Amino acid sequence: NAGLLELSLGKFRNVLLNQTNPVEAVIRNIASNVTVVIFQVHAQQSDVVISFDKNPSVNSSGTGVDKGLVSILRPQQSVCTWYLRSLDASPVLSTAISIPYMEKDPIPGGCNLEFDLEVDPNIYLDYTLVDIHIKFAPANLGYSRGANPPSCDSGTGQNSRWRLRYDVYQYFLPENDLSEMILLSHIRKMSEVQSIKANGIKMLTLTTDDKTNVYFSSLPGQGVIYNVIVWDPLWNTSAAYIPVHTYACSFADLVDNCFSLSKLSTKVFFTALAVLGLFACFFGHRFWKTDLFFMGFIVAAFFFFVFITRVTGLGYDVRLILTAVAGITGGLFLVASWWRFGSILLCMFIVGLVLGFLFSSTIFFTPLGDYRVFRDDVVFWVTFSSVAMMIPVLFVGCPRILNILASGIVGSYAVILAIACYVYTSLAYITLDLLRRVLNDYFSRAYTNVPFQTNDFIILSVWIMLALSGVTVQLRRERSEVPFPPHPYLTWKRERERRSTNVLDPSHHIPPLRERIHSKLLHFKEFFQKDQPAGERTLLLL
User: Fold this and answer.
1) What region holds the TM7S3/TM198-like domain (predicted)?
2) DSSP codes joined into one string, 198-231
């Protein structure tokens, strides 16, 4: 009692699938010059089963949200049939399409040796909070109906599959949009060769000598579609694999799902940091100690979070609380160091490093960071450190300008990080991708491309506006002031010596601190004592 779905080659059809009644998808009147038909079906979050038979078997079916099958046509064959059903009891909205290829077009997954299907055009995707891993089976050369397929392992010359090339494409869904219809409408743009080239972003090209797996940085909550085009340079023909999508999060989890990614502890931490950063953006140089505390907090919190994540297995919330404590301690330590030693050079070096860290992270946030040369950790960290060190070196002769720039730019970026806890923005990955690389030994293999859409342009404008306003206000306010406050410890020491030697100074006659505390305690004690009776008292007679 299967429902019937009549399809046309190259045309999408939306279809509701259920668990009990499979849908029979049929294509008729297939042209004789078509040798291969790739049929595929896509759903947002519920797995569907696609098979050649009504009773699926491991070697003749596939299960997932993005699955497809390859039908190798026999001579005179003009009809193809597949069967679809969902694994959920409730109806599942999906979209299906069948794409034809000719005898000179390569066959995606035609040399599969790893997965269950004999010819497997699917892309297999796994994700974590850190990275996304896609892998696929190698393709084979095309051939005519009724002929034997070319051997996958007979030589490596230009007459074998080894001449094939694989272009990996990436496509971002609209930000902050997890709707089902948006996915189904956009996945159509990544299903056929010409549409993929027109809409996708080409990330890399693999040869047959390369492993057919690629890593990308994970973007939880952001929809991404991946696909691979296999190209035959001899015939200049191409074919597309089955597109696969992910949001790098779960729709089904009760907590930390795709709709509530940021934890409460994260929101509290970065909101508090944003308040301090906004103050430093406009008043950092005037309130010098507060600015030092802000910079010290950032340095101490970053290194402590890396250390505690590397060496312990504590939960995220516990690590974030301990990181906040370490950041406060680091900020107070930097302020205390300034008070005791008064080294402008040391403080400006730390402030410059924070600004240099952000500047270098921004450089590698651009497409420059995906160059193959930076996959090597030594090359990456030497280059990153050199760029970061440039900032304090370049501004060594003008520390006041360096401090104002650092407080304005870094302080305003703290506001952006807080915004990212409530609304998705790719700007958060300027520093997050660097943190991932520090914490994960294999993150260097991941491509870190991110979307940059309307939402990101608006938030980038907010960042630029805040930074420019903060720097301008501080430069105008501080232009007639001394560059930095005097050394606080020396000032306090000179003041103490002056009071101890100048008998005309009223402060010279102030008792020592110990005597003043003792006197205050006596007054406090007398407050609780009862009044003593004075003389004889008699009752009042009326």
Assistant:
1) 271-475
2) HHSEEEEEEETTS-SEEEEE--TT--EEEEEEEE
